[in-house]
Amino acid sequence: MTDATAISISDLTELATEILTRGGFSHPQGAAIARTIIAAERDNCKSHGVYRIEGCLRTLKLGKVVPDAEPVLLQDDSAVVRVDAKSGFANLAFELGAPVLAEKTRKFGVAALVINDCTHFAALWPEVEALADQGLAAMAMCPSYATVAPSGGDKPLLGTNPFAFGWPRAGDTPYVFDFATSVVARGEVELYRRAGKQLPEGWAIDADGNPTTDPEAALSGAMLPFGGHKGSAISTMIELLAGAMIGDFTSDEALDFLGTTAIAPRHGELVLAFDPARMSGGRGNPIAKGEAFLDAIAGQGARLPSQRRFAARKIAMAEGISLSAAEMAQLHDLHARGLAAVD
Amino acid sequence: MTDATAISISDLTELATEILTRGGFSHPQGAAIARTIIAAERDNCKSHGVYRIEGCLRTLKLGKVVPDAEPVLLQDDSAVVRVDAKSGFANLAFELGAPVLAEKTRKFGVAALVINDCTHFAALWPEVEALADQGLAAMAMCPSYATVAPSGGDKPLLGTNPFAFGWPRAGDTPYVFDFATSVVARGEVELYRRAGKQLPEGWAIDADGNPTTDPEAALSGAMLPFGGHKGSAISTMIELLAGAMIGDFTSDEALDFLGTTAIAPRHGELVLAFDPARMSGGRGNPIAKGEAFLDAIAGQGARLPSQRRFAARKIAMAEGISLSAAEMAQLHDLHARGLAAVD
User: Fold this and answer.
1) CATH number of the domain enclosing A35
2) B105 and B23 share a domain?
3) In this predicted model, what pLDDT tens digit does every residue of B58-82 receive, in sequence order?
4) Which of A152, A230, A245 lies closest to B274 in CB terms?
5) Complex ipTM, two decimals?
6) Is residue A213 included in any domain, yes or no?
7) What's the Cα-to-Cα distance from B29 to each of A123, B52, B56, B67, rounded to whole Å?
8) By its UniProt entry, which InterPro entries does this protein fall under (chains A, B) (predicted)?
């Protein structure tokens, strides 16, 4: 790639922070958003990388996020810590709540972080990784926009509802997965549409509820959950736990609230954390037991999730993040013109 | 069915308890096992119904379960309650731990029940239903025997690792699902073998790791996780949380320990519970919000999980449980001859 520029993680984070703050975010909000976006770009996770900066600014421009929100932490003597994001993006809210979640998890063995009234655009893996880095196991989940039909149904109701899990590994990157509970993320269907390609079977139904491989028909119909009725059940669980239970939007309410899937959705989030040291009750070393099991998976030649990200991260940490000339040009345009550069 | 006998739930529970105690189980153990088995039979969930009685006796006959184990409850000021099943079946251990789990959940918002050193033959839905009946949301999971290859792998390593979830509904049966994280339970493959039928594609691989539709080849090879790499990841999470983390067997260790899949496996179990009233933080009524969402699913004509069980339960509660002459004969034989009637 002759047109690629290598830029250090810290320089790119600073540039992204500047773009976001010049665009109108407070420094704490902009910096937290930038850290998350650049972590994704660093891992070559382009779907959540620098191209999301414009989306965050668009959401701001449309008045659908409070750019200088100051999240408020609420805690009592329970094992639940709550952060009211005050209609800001979720990132700063998570950063505020995570240390308290970790502390409560060490105290109680298991604890929960509830984030309410946040705008959400990011993957969940940065969150479970942050907890795994502290030696904790973690699950994270949230609703999104109603674009997925429940198994046996014919209309969008569930979101793509991501589910993420992290498990600490000794002296290594953690075991981490993070996936949409739909067959694929909506962006994937959009890529097929732009490429003029037919979808694989089993991804979607049209507006009448019939199976379709036409991306246009799929986008005006509904995507399907992964794994049939089992994936549909897990997605429903996410609506109940990370929507209804925490007093926040389910995916249909999130879509009703904003009326479009073109900007970042508004909802809540649920993160659970476990302290393996406490959960094991002195019955051996849980991390060592985990290693033995994960090694047995890898020993079959099966790839553990997130390995591609970790490999890209290693390169980015040594050589900087490689961005194309077009990506750099867009960043410079956003930096120079601010919201005027946002469609 | 001219040969069917209707027997009341309580009479059948009493008969099962007598069979189990005459076979050698202590009364508390036998009664707890009988309650679980008859709950399954009542719901016409035959795979966990009366036919399991012989399996429990077989496990006892082979000396692989302690029939008069007295489970021990361990608790501290954390949100985790632990029950050491003392090598007995899981049922009595759960019954001992569940009230303390419920109490801790109300106190802390979220809490966990860890069961260690138990023998396990039952579905998990009775457990999440018992918690939902008390107004709590719950997740339950456990390893089993290594019979499933991880996605991308070629040898059995994961168990069929069931995952269950329950959510309380106002004035109705709860929202409950409980499924194997393999495409199907192992018993299903066995049914195809007995019927001389080929398996659908995507269920299994042979001993060389190649896809197979031959049930014999599948049984000596490995089953596959549901939903490809996503289901495989969830199953791995279950090994880590409900095996490694709680200081108990992963599915490969469980199989090593007993050396056969023909009797009930030995491992631990993890149950998480949530108090929606506390988790909602005063932001509306979580149960009412859940109802609205579940009604929207049902409003599309999509069936909620467990509805078939609940319908069967209603009939059994009104008319008794219907058993065939062969089933009744086997129960009477087990009752009369005890362990001598067990293969």
Assistant:
1) 1.10.1530.10
2) no
3) 999 999 999 999 999 999 999 999 9
4) A245
5) 0.97
6) no
7) 46, 15, 11, 7
8) Mal/L-sulf/L-lact_DH-like_ah, Mal/L-sulf/L-lact_DH-like_NADP, Mal/L-sulfo/L-lacto_DH-like_sf, Malate/L-lactate_DH-like
